[in-house]
C-alpha cells in the first residue's frame, strides 16, 4: 500500500507503529521499528530539500534521450528554421502586395533620371550643333465658368424628395457622399434630356448652358458650333466645348475633322456632354491624323481623371452614330449611359451604329450598348477602362465585333448582360482584363410570372472564332444559360479556366487551350449540352475537360489532351489565393501548440501511471521479503488479477537478508523529509496486499527519500526534469517497471522517450546484478 505522499508504508505487527520503508532498508531486530522523526524537526526542514544522505532526483540525460546534437548545433537549427518560416511569410506578404514591381519601377525611374541628367548636363567640348528650337507649348486654356447647371436640377429633385419624406429623429441611412452625388448627376441628366427632347422650357437658369442643334436642312459642323459660341477655338487644331451640345431628333452633327482635338470641358465646376436624342453624329479623322475627343479640366489644364464630380461623355439615344479613325479618352462616370461612349435606345426605337478604326482609352466603360441593333465594331482598340471594356445591356441584338482588341479593363473585357442575343466575335484579342475575357449571361431574367413582365426565354447566339484570349483574371470565356453557342479556332492561354459553360448548349471545335493552373474546359449544370471535337488542351490542373453538377450530355471526339498534367484542385486553389496560404501558416502555430500540450499531458499521465505501478510492485516485493525475513506468512495474492503482480513480485528479494544482531536500544533514525514524517501514523496492514496501479491525479512526490541502491545500477546525475517519485533515475524507474511491474520493454521506452535498446540494456544489466545477489545470498545460507 502507499502512503499519503506516494511512498510505500510497511505495516507492522499489531500494537506497533508503522513507518514508511525504503527499498533495501532492513527491519530493526526483534521486531522493533525505528522511532519516527519528531514533527518539530520535520517542520524545520524545507519541503524542497532532499532528505539527508539521498541522491537528487534526476531526469533524462542526453545519452538516455539518444541526443547526438550538441546545444550549439540545436540552437543554430532552430534559428535557421525560424528565419525560413518568417522569411516565407514576409515574402508572401511582399509579393502579394506587388512591392517588388513597385520597387523595381522606382529604381528604374531614378536610374533613368540620373543617366538622362548626366547625358544632357555635360555637352562635348567644342561640339557644335543646330540651334536649339523652343519646345512647343500647349495653348493655354482659359478658366471656364460653371457650365452644366446640374446642381440646380439636383437641388430641385432633392427638395421635392425632402418635402415628400416625413421627418425622423432616427439616424439617417449611411450613404457614400461621392456615390450619391454621381447618381444624382445621372438622374439630373436623364431629366434634362427628357425635357429638352419634349421641347419643354428649362426654368433652372441653365438654358444658356445647352446648345440645341435643330432647324438646319444640312448637317451641323464644328464651324457652326464655334460660330454659335458652343465651342471655343484655342489654336489651329485645338477646340474647347464650353456648352452642352444636344443634337435633337432629325438633326445631324458631322465632326469630320482630321487632326483636330476637341476638348469637352469637365471639372469641379461641371461638365459638357455631347448628346444626340433621336439625331445622328458622325466622327471622322484619317489614319495619319485622327480626330481626338477627350475631357478637359480647365482648372488643371489637363484631362479630367476624377469621376467623383461627374465627367463629360458622349451619348447617342434612339439615333445613329458612325466613327472612323477617332480617339476617345478619359470620358464617362458612374452608369452605362453616362459611361463614356454610349449607344442606347428604347423598346420601340433601337439605336444603331458603325465603329471603325477607333480607339477608346481611360473610359469609365469603353463602349456601352443598350437597346441597339446591328452595331458593327471593326478594327477598334479599347484599353484601360475603369469598368468593362465593352458592355452589352438589355435588348442588344446582332452585334459584330471584328479584329478588335480589349485590353486592361478593370472587370470583364466583353460583358453581355441578360436580354441580349446574337453576338459574333471574330479575330479579337481579349487580354489582361480583371474578370473574364468574354462573359455572356443569357439566363432568363424570370422563371415564372413576375410584376416586371420579364420573359422566361434565355438568350441565344454567341459565336467566338479565330480570337486570341489570355492572361485574364477569372478566365477566358464564361457562358451562362445561352443556346446556339459556337467556339471555333480560338487560341487560349489562361490561368484558372479556359472555357466555362453553365447550362448552355455549345459546339466547341478546333481550339487550342492552354491553362496553367486550372481546368481546360468546364461544363456545369444539368442543362448543359455540348459537342467537343478536335481541340488541343494542355497545361496542368484538376481536369482537361471537367463535368460537374449533372452536366452529362457532352460528346467528345478527337481531342488531344496529351499535354495535360493533372494536379489536385486544392493546390490550384492555394496558388490562386496566396493569402489563404499565409493565414493557414499562421494558424498552424496554435494548432501545433495545442496538439503539443495534449501530447505532453498524455505523456505525463503515462509516466505517472508507470511510476505508480512500478512503485507498488517494488513495495510489494520488498514487503514480502521483509515479512519472510521475520518469519511471517507470505501474503495472500490469490485474489490479484492476472498482470497486476508479476511473478518477480512474489520472488525473494535479490538483496541479502538482514543478519541477526543482538538486541539493543533503538538508535535515533536520521531526519526524514516532512512527507515521511506525516506517514508515520499509517493504519494497520490489510490481510491482502494487491499490487494494483493507483490512479492518482497528482504527481508522485519527488522529495521522498531515495535508496542508495535501487533495482539496477544508478545513472549519472543531471539537472532535474520530470519527477520519478522514489526512483533516483530514469534507469531505476525503467528497470523496476520491466522486472517488478512486468511492463513490456517497448512500452516503457515509449513512455519515457528512451531508445528501446537503452532500456533493454538497463534491464539486462539489472537482471545480472539480481542473479548475482541471489547466488550470493544462497551461498551465505549454505
Give short descriptive properties of this protein:
14 helices; 27% helix; alpha/beta; 782 residues; 36-stranded mixed β-sheet
Account of the protein in words:
- With 782 residues, the protein is of the alpha/beta class.
- Among the domains are: 9-68 and 593-781, no CATH class; 183-328, no CATH class.
- The chain contains 14 helices and 38 strands.
- The strands form 2 sheets. It has a 36-stranded mixed beta sheet that branches. Strands 1-2 form a two-stranded antiparallel sheet.
- The radius of gyration is 47 Å and the shape is elongated.
- The two termini are 34 Å apart.
- Mean pLDDT is 77; it is low at 1-58, 114-144, 637-659 and 661-723.
Compact description:
With 782 residues, this protein is of the alpha/beta class.
List the helices and strands and how they pair.
Blueprint: E1 9-10, E2 19-20, H1 39-44, H2 62-65, H3 71-96, H4 99-121, H5 150-164, H6 177-197, E3 210-213, H7 222-227, E4 231-233, E5 238-241, E6 244-247, E7 252-256, E8 261-267, E9 270-271, E10 274-277, E11 280-284, E12 291-296, E13 314-317, E14 320-329, E15 340-344, E16 352-361, E17 365-370, E18 376-378, E19 381-383, E20 390-392, E21 397-402, E22 405-407, E23 414-416, E24 421-426, E25 429-431, E26 436-441, E27 459-465, E28 468-470, E29 475-480, E30 482-488, E31 491-502, E32 505-509, E33 512-524, E34 529-533, E35 536-541, E36 545-548, E37 553-557, E38 560-566, H8 569-576, H9 578-629, H10 647-650, H11 674-677, H12 730-740, H13 745-752, H14 756-781
Parallel strand pairs: 3-6, 5-8, 6-10, 7-11, 8-12, 10-13, 11-14, 12-14, 13-15, 14-16, 15-17, 16-18, 16-19, 17-20, 18-21, 19-22, 20-23, 21-24, 22-25, 23-26, 24-27, 25-28, 26-29, 27-30, 28-31, 29-31, 30-32, 31-33, 32-34, 33-35, 33-36, 34-37, 35-38
Antiparallel strand pairs: 1-2, 4-5, 8-9
Helix pairs in contact: 3-9, 5-6, 9-12, 12-13, 12-14, 13-14
